[in-house]
What we know:
Layout: H1 2-28, H2 39-49, H3 52-58, E1 60-63, H4 69-75, E2 99-102, H5 114-129, E3 138-141, H6 159-162, H7 177-186, H8 188-196, H9 212-228, E4 233-234, H10 258-263, H11 267-272, E5 295-299, E6 313-314, H12 318-325, H13 327-334, E7 339-342, E8 346-347, E9 350-351, H14 356-366, E10 374-377, E11 381-384, H15 389-396, H16 404-413, E12 428-430, H17 447-457, E13 462-463, H18 468-480, H19 486-502, H20 522-535, E14 537-541, E15 558-562, H21 569-573, H22 594-601, E16 607-610, H23 616-622, E17 626-632, H24 652-660, E18 665-670, H25 678-681, E19 686-691, H26 698-704, H27 767-776
Parallel strand pairs: 1-2, 1-13, 2-3, 3-4, 5-7, 6-8, 7-12, 15-16, 15-17, 17-18, 18-19
Antiparallel strand pairs: 8-9, 10-11, 14-19
Helix pairs in contact: 1-16, 2-19, 4-5, 7-8, 7-27, 9-20, 14-17, 17-18, 20-26, 22-26
Amino acid sequence: MEAMARILMEMMGIMLWLMVLVAMAVGEDVKYKDPKQPVAVRIKDLISRMTLEEKIGQMVQIDRLTASPDIMRTYSIELVPTDVVDKCCAGIAGFVNGSVLSGGGSAPLPKASAEDWVNMINEFQNGSLSSRLGIPMIYGIDAVHGHNNVFNATIFPHNIGLGATRQCMFCKRSLPLSVSLFVRSANKSMYAKFNMHCSTYLLHSCRRARDPDLVKRIGSATALEVRATGIPYVFAPCIAVCKDPRWGRCYESYSEDHKLVEAMTEIIPGLQGDIPAKSRKGVPYVGGKKKVAACAKHFVGDGGTTKGINENNTVIDKHGLFSIHMPAYSDSIIKGVSTVMVSYSSWNGEKMHADRELITGFLKHTLKFKVRFTFQFHRSLKLTFCNNESDLWDLFGNKLNITVFSMVFLAINFVAAVDLMLHIDVGFVISDWQGIDKITSPPHANYSYSVQAAIQAGIDMVMLPFNHTEFIDDLTDLVKTNVIPMDRIDDAVKRILLVKFNLGLFENPLADFSLVNELGSQAHRDLAREAVRKSLVLLKNGKNKTDPLLPLPRKVSKILVAGTHADNLGYQCGGWTIQWQGFSGNEYTRGTTILGAIKYTVDPSTEVVFQENPDSQFIKDNHFAYAIIVVGEPPYAETAGDSMDLIMIDPGPSVISNVCETIKCVVVVISGRPIVIEPYLSSIDALVAAWLPGTEGQGVTDALFGDYGFTGKLPRTWFKNVGQLPMNVGDRHYDPLFPFNFGLKTNSAPDIVGRSTSSGIIGRPYAFVLMISVIFSLCS
Length: 780
């Protein structure tokens, strides 16, 4: 027996020695560089090799202006004493930068080409790749209505316009018999109109006919144009539910209705690609070199602030927050969104950037925007949340019935079976621009506290355009003094690395010129033109319903085009175009103004006269057949757009007064939200809400001149006066000028019950008829 015991002990010693050899072999194998390895295995291997400094560097996103190639190379110098580093870079040696961004208007050159962008980004990337571990950086940019920072890019309508789009869902069969008889008995002429168009009796449920397929195609086109410039990551979409149009970011919201906003999250698979059919829902996914990582923003409740004041406080109970502002985030995560950006705003007084309950507790844990590890051995053994080999040994090493063979098998499984079954389903949470600075009031009052609060709340990557060294120093101290645990840092870095691996940056870190012709391509401009015409909402057509003005005749002797926005591409595109606050004029990018589109569309014999602000005498002397007036808001972004009066800029009111009181006129409103229009409504023959249509002005003339019908519906309530605000569909005291989801069709009955006026809108007596038809309709 003693001999047998001695032999067994010797065999166990040999097996343990073999286990050590296996572990050593694993250590020598640089798995994170091997594309044949599962992504989770590569991340685990890379994390194990990283120093604290390198990990914190991955959590930093700096602005392009800070991230010169020299700075990037300095970030990539490992173990270099600070005194050998140039004074401008003191203190950052040893840190490998995780990400770079372009803020609004930040470009390598004025009117930079796609090639210029690619060359700049590759310079930054080469700096990152020269680090000890060669971890690539990820470049991010705001692409909120196309690749809007870049000259010659296709600029799509802002989100509010896309929220107005609707699919044409005409019935292929007549009304159900019971509904037909009921409507016929109420009004024979209305019966004919009801049978003409299915959407005529969809009523409020017409929301179901919104056009998410269009935004998905826009997402795909945007991804191609962004990738054409070498950029793999976009800060889009904005899925805020704007509840007050006084908010300066309301045009970034698809609607006041959270259901409509949820539907428009279909832009995410457009940007990132469709999750493969056999994959689990909710796994962050990017489908190749023609797609980009998306970012759902701004978590959460930014559209509900008091009086619409940007970055203000959203006062709402938990049920309201979760039922109105949260659902689109759940949809985004199900669709595999790669990242989520936190809002500047507060919820009931607590800054979102410091709200651990919502960021970690709800977003990461309840909505499952989190890491999941699964280790498997044999077919019958499974352990979840087991993070390293020592955990496995603790589980099995003290079991009396584990044989020598099982121990050897277990050792081999460290490399073979266990790691192959590891899954990481995770995206990262990013701050907004200097967002953590604003945790305190005034901003930056106690920066160390802000760093601690933000990281412990669950923010993984911090947007630090200017003060990255301070952040690095403070976070390093917080970790070394055990205020912030290392596993919180590891969690953040795993999330960031997963997105980089999903993007293929470790295999293809450098951009090339293969997609440069996608920027501003004709196919994308045609798509934008389609989006423009689908986004137009016809609010009035004729001073009485028997005399509609639209569609306009192309062949007349002379027409007048007037207004500040008729020949101004910058006004037409709005904020977040080339510059953060947008621009005025036609010099900063390429596109077609509405005036240019009118000249192209009308008959060659028709004379088009443009005067921005014509006087009454000029109008009388010229005998115009009709006038097209284009007026609205100037471009703005964020806080600069907050407005308590919501009026059009001068001389808009006087143009409407001078022109519309003299000749027939159609007024096209270019704005990021409903504005005050009721005082002028009686003098206007036709009124069109065109939102912020972007570069393709021909989409407007497509509908004005009848090539396509008007199909758009209001994505938000149009108020009578600002004293009514906030006012949203479903409110107890709801008395709008034009209700949510309202929109006329050219040469047809309107689609929903609205107001009883002389503008051709169905009156209230038929509301009950329409409601019954919704119940019985098979068309929705």
